[in-house]
């Protein structure tokens, strides 16, 4: 199963991912969050690494079936994380050349992966299509959780388009790699588009001098205003030590 299985399930970092799992599960108790998109401001902040480990953590829950969908149609990398091929995928299904079941990779009993397949010349048009929207609704009805790896929203509009079909968005930030003002601007623009940002993860943070040694973790609750109105929102962050776990995306 590739790099996702390289993480020691008893390590503090694995436990931190399980804590993120818990926080996502309880982030909106009144609404059933099934389809969750992971994105970032720019490339190489670790969103693909993060989504794969979070999905793996969810798949360990009893009777919980998880699907990871790579909709970064410009630069896919989820298949590398799981050590699988990208010969067939979403594009084959959308073009009616292959049944959905034959496009899905069953890496474990409770965790399935759907790669993009061939890279299309017009990703924005593909993502905006009615067929894409229907596809997401279809897989949503078949799984307990659907995690979507989307392109960085600070670079192209693809992520904003995908977010319209999802129940919530997780925002991954690379420590010391992203301009905080740019990140705030991107998040503000997403909220203006009525995007439900349910949390954020600070990735690749060097905690070498921290008392925890291997990883650090913070959790806080405050008022965050969004396009869906002012409400109490929970924010959490996961700090991955650079030297222990480098991000693929």
UniProtKB/TrEMBL annotation:
Keyword ATP-binding recorded: yes
Pfam families: CbiA
Alphabetic keyword roster: ATP-binding, Kinase, Nucleotide-binding, Transferase
Domain CobQ/CobB/MinD/ParA nucleotide binding as annotated: residue spans: 36-209
GO MF term (any one): non-membrane spanning protein tyrosine kinase activity
EC number: 2.7.10.2
Name of protein: Tyrosine-protein kinase YveL
Species of provenance: Terrisporobacter mayombei
Gene assigned in the entry: yveL_2
């Amino acid at each position: 199963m590739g790099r996702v299985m390289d993480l020691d399930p008893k390590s503090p970092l694995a436990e931190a991912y399980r804590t993120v799992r818990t926080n996502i599960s309880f982030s909106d108790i009144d609404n059933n969050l099934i389809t969750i998109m992971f994105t970032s401001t720019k490339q190489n902040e670790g969103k693909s690494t993060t989504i794969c480990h979070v999905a793996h953590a969810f798949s360990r829950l009893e009777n919980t079936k998880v699907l990871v969908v790579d909709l970064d149609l410009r630069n896919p990398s989820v298949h590398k994380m799981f050590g699988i091929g990208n010969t067939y995928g979403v594009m084959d299904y959308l073009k009616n050349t292959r049944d959905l079941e034959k496009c899905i990779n069953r890496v474990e009993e409770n965790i399935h992966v759907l790669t993009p397949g061939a890279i299309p010349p017009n990703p924005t048009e593909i993502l905006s299509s009615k067929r894409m929207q229907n596809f997401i609704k279809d897989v949503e009805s078949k799984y307990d959780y659907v995690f979507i790896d989307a392109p960085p929203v600070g670079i192209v509009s693809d992520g904003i388009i995908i977010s319209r079909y999802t129940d919530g968005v997780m925002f991954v930030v690379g420590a010391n790699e992203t301009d905080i003002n740019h990140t705030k601007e991107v998040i503000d623009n997403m909220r203006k588009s009525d995007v439900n940002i349910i949390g954020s993860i600070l990735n690749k943070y060097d905690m070498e001098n921290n008392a925890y040694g291997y990883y650090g973790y913070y959790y806080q609750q405050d008022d965050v205003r969004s396009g869906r109105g002012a409400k109490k929102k929970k924010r959490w962050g996961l700090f991955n030590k650079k030297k222990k776990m480098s991000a693929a995306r």
